[in-house]
Amino acid sequence: MSIKSCFYRCRLILSVISCFIIFTVVIHKLYCYNLKDNCLTYNTPMVISTWAFTNATTKSWSVLNMTGTAIDAVVAGCTVCEQEQCDGTVGYGGSPDENGETSLDALIIDGATMNMGAVGHMKRIKSASKVARLVMENTKHTLLVGDEATQFAIQMGFKETNLSTIESLNLWKQWKSNNCQPNFWTNVNPDPKMYCGPYKPNLLKNSKPEPNLVDTKNHDTIGIIAIDHERNIAAGTSTNGAKFKIPGRVGDSPIPGSGAYAMNTYGAAAATGDGDILMRFLPSFHAVQAMKNGHNPTKAAQLAIDTISNYYPDFSGAVIAVNKYGDYGAACHGFDRFPYSIANPKHNKVSLLYITCTKSKS
């Protein structure tokens, strides 16, 4: 056999192999295209939560491993933080309002049914996330607030208790002795940056909206997202709100689409930070819609954050996001770094992750 003939046969064999590989790839893609999930693999069950609240994430993960539902996992994780008073921003004994009283907000969303329940400015009841779940499961409403939320909880069997502690009352006394600084008033007399109230409107002055003082100890919220063995998704939040808030204030945490959002068909997201700014943009809903439009979770979270920072470059906040396959991501602005924790089959334990946040360019 001549060298030329041998070379020709080798080319022919390589061409056949190449055609076979291309044919196989095309058939696989056509097959996957006709499947519901396009042959994508699931990294579920999984749980992800805002901040370094790893005990809460561990509890949620253990519930999922015992074949608990996504809702069970979210409520269990939030309850741990309510009991441990995570960072003083969740549960009893934290974030006193101007009257020195602590109140709680919480939200639970079922991504399978789009049913949800929430409580806002609820006083004298410790288990806010459990009460939110009962609003979802035992009423046709979505959000109960104030003393009426407390009465609902009592009717459902929860015990009334004082949410203030020595620490929270001392914090409030220090704030009063410091001329009520900082506070959430604007365009009033006397000057809220120098004096306590009571205040009256200053009709002659209009000031530009300002972001609130938010840091790792005053940020609103634990947010938890869980996907269970049945691939159902749930999300939830719990918080005692902003320190020294005006009595009656409800933050973003119990607002569906702001504090959290979940849809089985696309994924879920949860937000944390300056709640008064966050709720103006519904960042959790924004992130889920971005995943619906094909963005991965990290990009979806970043788009939600960027929308806010374009209007409020000095605001501080973060968003975590998960798609229905268990892929996850996060984005943040204003903080130096933002911690969040996850657990899934790849890790098989709770891992604490950090991302670097964007900052104002000014």
From TrEMBL:
Catalysed reactions listed for this entry: N(4)-(beta-N-acetyl-D-glucosaminyl)-L-asparagine + H2O = N-acetyl-beta-D-glucosaminylamine + L-aspartate + H(+)
Gene Ontology MF term list: N4-(beta-N-acetylglucosaminyl)-L-asparaginase activity; peptidase activity
The keyword Hydrolase is assigned to this record: yes
EC assignment: 3.5.1.26
Domain of life: Eukaryota
Transmembrane spans: 12-31
Binding-site list for substrate: R249, V250, G251, D252, T272, G273, D274, G275
Annotated Pfam families: Asparaginase_2 (PF01112)
Family: Belongs to the Ntn-hydrolase family.
Cellular component aspect of the GO annotation: lysosome
Active site per UniProt: T221
Enzyme class name: hydrolase
Function: Cleaves the GlcNAc-Asn bond which joins oligosaccharides to the peptide of asparagine-linked glycoproteins.
Name of the protein in its database record: N(4)-(beta-N-acetylglucosaminyl)-L-asparaginase
Gene Ontology terms: biological process: proteolysis
Keyword Iron-sulfur attributed: no
Keyword list, A-Z: Autocatalytic cleavage, Hydrolase, Membrane, Protease, Transmembrane, Transmembrane helix
Site location (Cleavage): D220, T221
InterPro entries: Ntn_hydrolases_N (IPR029055), Peptidase_T2 (IPR000246)
SUPFAM superfamilies, sorted: N-terminal nucleophile aminohydrolases (Ntn hydrolases)
